[in-house]
Amino acid sequence: MPLTHYDADAVRTNLDYPGCIEQIAMAMRALSTHDKPQPLRSILPLEEGQLFALMPGQLSDGTGFGAKVISVFADQDNPSRSAHRGLVVLFAPGTGEVLCTGDAGEITHIRTAAASAVATRALARPDARHLTLFGCGAQARTHARAMVHVRPIEAITVWGRSPEAGQAFAARMSEELALPVRFESDGEAAARQADIICTVSSAATPILQGAWLQPGTHLNLVGSSFAGPVEVDHAAVLAGRYFVDSRASALAAAAEFLAARTAGLVDDTHIQGEIGAVIAGDAKGRQSAEEVTIYKSLGHIVQDLSALAYLHARSTGMTVA
């Protein structure tokens, strides 16, 4: 049988948000409740603004294993943004054959937003209606599309360093989602009106301050995926109960948490638990309407593999196992 590859168009067309959200929820629950070896990602710095990464792992329910092989190169036309290029490879358990491959960039865009939606469903107030996005690139688009599936979003605000890009994003997403989407140039104003905030930028220094967060806000920290660049200040890390996708990954690479720990403001107990443990009922999530909750997304290979397995099964009518 010829190897099936899902290119970027196929991923965009067939990896639907409601289905992907459910797959990610199951994968994260399994990650936190099954004892399967999951190596940390390996990142090889190349030239300035260039990284090569390898993420191996296995689905904790035993339905597949594989890896993501990806390059992250700064966009030459817009150095503030990065482009992810590579493959996700899914292998079959038992036989070890390659089942399929998928475009890593598009899978990453959608599964990351789906993971944030899973965390938002688990942690945000049920009546959260106003979404604010810090960033106006590809991840902002997918996060807007995902969030409307888990909370009754009535309005979206976007902040970005480029007013032109922010206004173009607002116009495009307002038409696509049939919701009021507006650009806000003042970060504090953008944050103060939000019930849910997603930081989805390429910022290396804080663009969101904890002092701006209102009681009851849920915050998804997404843009920084390795130790070094931070999107929020120490006060934001300290502002609420802090959850992660993977404790091992967070202790190695959650930049904002690591910076606060280095400053002596938190220790490892600041991590309340993995989002999969919250879903499973093994960790307490939101405890009051006024509480601020924080989810640090680093991404995990089980998200990529479960998304590709779902896409493959949906496209072929086959099961992965």
Blueprint (SSEs and pairs):
Layout: E1 4-6, H1 8-14, H2 17-33, E2 42-45, E3 50-58, E4 65-74, E5 82-91, E6 98-103, H3 104-123, E7 130-134, H4 138-147, E8 155-159, H5 163-177, E9 181-183, H6 187-192, E10 196-199, E11 218-221, H7 234-238, E12 241-244, H8 247-253, H9 255-262, E13 271-274, H10 275-280, E14 293-296, H11 301-316
Parallel strand pairs: 1-6, 7-8, 7-10, 8-9, 10-11, 11-14, 12-13, 12-14
Antiparallel strand pairs: 2-3, 3-4, 4-5, 5-6
Helix pairs in contact: 1-3, 2-3, 2-11, 3-4, 3-11
What is shown here, in short?
Helices cover 36% and strands 23% of the residues. It is α/β, with parallel strands linked by helices and 321 residues long. The strands form two sheets. It has an eight-stranded parallel beta sheet. A six-stranded mixed beta sheet has the order 1-6-5-4-3-2.
